[in-house]
Amino acid sequence: MFSNTKKVALLLATGVLLSTSFSGTVALADTTSTDTNSDTTVSTATNSQNDSDNQVVKDTNTNGTTNSNASTSTANTTAATTNGSATTTVQSAQDIDLSAVRSAMLTELNSLRAQNGLSALSSVSVLNNYAQTRTDSFTSSGVDDHAGWNSANMYPYYLDAEENIAQMPFTMLGTTDPTTIAQKITAEFYSENYDPQPNYGHRKNMLNPYINFVGIGVSVGSNGMVYFSQEMGNDAEAHSRYAASDLYSYYLTNENDYANVSQYNLVDSKRKSADYKARDGYAVADVRGGVTTKSAPVVVYDRYGQTTDLVLPANTSWGSDIIAIMDNTFYYHVSSNGFVLADDVTPWASFLAGTIVTTTGNAMIYGDNGAATGTIVPSGTMWKTDRRSTNPNNGIKMYRIGTNAWLLKTNLTGA
C-alpha cells in the first residue's frame, strides 16, 4: 500500500492512561511522559505515605461529582546556610502570610481566566468563609475527598457549585512568597502533574465560563502541610443568565477527561516547540494517553497538516500529549512535528489503570477495532483494567482487560 521510500516512524510506543471524547472524536490521555521527542513531559508522583515530602493531593468537585485521591504527608521546614558563615535561616510553613496568599490566588486565578477570554470571578465573603472552613478542617484530617463538602453551605452562591481542594507540603512550595505559592498551586490545578487520576477537572472548574463568584481558603497544618480550597458558584441572578442546556453540557465535559483548548503563560512558556503554539487555524488541547493504529499503516502529518515521509505501522500504540485542531480537523500529536488524523487511530487512556471491574452478566469481548470477537466472559468475573476508551459509533465507554480485549461499560460494575 505504501511506497518503499516511505519511512516507518521511529517514535516511542507506550501503553498508558485516560479516556475522553472530543467533538465526537475519542481522545485519551496519560499520567506519565510518553514521548521522548516531545517538548513537554508530564510526571506523576504516587501518593505513597513513604514519599511524604513529594506528595500533592488534589480533589475537584463539580455539582457533587468527585474525582479524588487522599494521602498524608509530613515536612515543615527548609534551612538555608550561607557560605562561609554559621548563620542559618529557617523558613517554616507557619511563616506564610495566609491572607496574602489568598489574595494572590484570586489574582492568579483571574489572570488565568483573562488569558482565556473569560471574565474575572468576584470574591465574596460567604464563599471565602466557607473555603476557609474547609481548609481549616483539613489540618486535622487531610484533604477529605469532598466528604465534607456541602454546597448548601455556600448559599446564596450554591448554584452551579464547584470545589477544587489540594494539599502541598511546604518543602515542595519552598517559599513563603505569596505570589510564588499562588502560581505553584494554580499551575498544579491547571496541569495535574501530581494527580494519579488526571482528568483536567480542576482546570475545567477554574475556566468555567458559567460561574461568577469564588472564595479561597488557605490553611497550614502543624506538620507543615499547606491546604488550599477554591469554592465557586452562582447566586440565583447569575444562574438565570445561562441556558440550562449550556450548563449541563459544560458539566458533562468532566466525563471526557481532556483539557478544553486553553492557555496559561506559566505552563506554556515551558513549551518551546511550535507544536504547542496557537496560531490562526491551529489550536491545541492537552491529553494524557495515546493512540493505537488500526489494521493499516497510518500517515504522519506535520504541524501544518502536510503529509510527511513517515508512517506508523498497523496495530501499534503511540503516546500522545496534545490534540491539535488544524483548520477544524482533529489530529493527535505523536512526535516532534508529527501528528496523525484522529479518524485514522483509536485513542485510549488509562488513568484508571489497576481498577477492578466486575461483569454483571455474560459479557462479549471486543477487539481494538471495536468489533465483537465472539468470545464471552462469564458473569460475576473480576478483571483488572489498564485502559479506557469510547466507541465513536455509539459513545459507549469500553475498558481493556487484555491485549485486544475490551468490555463494554454497560456490562460492568466498578467502571
Walk me through this protein's architecture.
The protein has 415 residues and is α+β, with helices and mostly antiparallel strands. 18% of the residues lie in helices and 34% in strands. It contains eight helices and 26 strands. The chain has helices at residues 98-115, 125-141, 170-173, 178-191, 201-206, 236-239, 244-252, 265-268; strands at 7-8, 19-22, 25-28, 57-62, 65-67, 77-81, 88-92, 122-123, 159-169, 213-220, 225-234, 282-293, 298-301, 307-312, 317-326, 329-335, 338-341, 345-348, 356-359, 363-366, 372-377, 382-384, 387-390, 397-402, 405-408, 412-413. The strands form eight sheets. A six-stranded mixed beta sheet has the order 5-4-9-11-10-8. It has a five-stranded antiparallel beta sheet with strand order 17-16-15-12-18, with no helix packed on it. Strands 1-14-13 form a three-stranded mixed beta sheet, with no helix packed on it. Strand 15 (317-326) and strand 16 (329-335) form a beta hairpin. Helix 1 (98-115) crosses helix 4 (178-191). The protein is globular, with a radius of gyration of 23 Å.
As a percent range, the share of helical residues equals 10-25%
Rounded mean pLDDT is: 80
Read across the widest sheet, the strand sequence of neighbours is: 5-4-9-11-10-8
**In percent, how much strand structure appears in the residues?**
25-35%
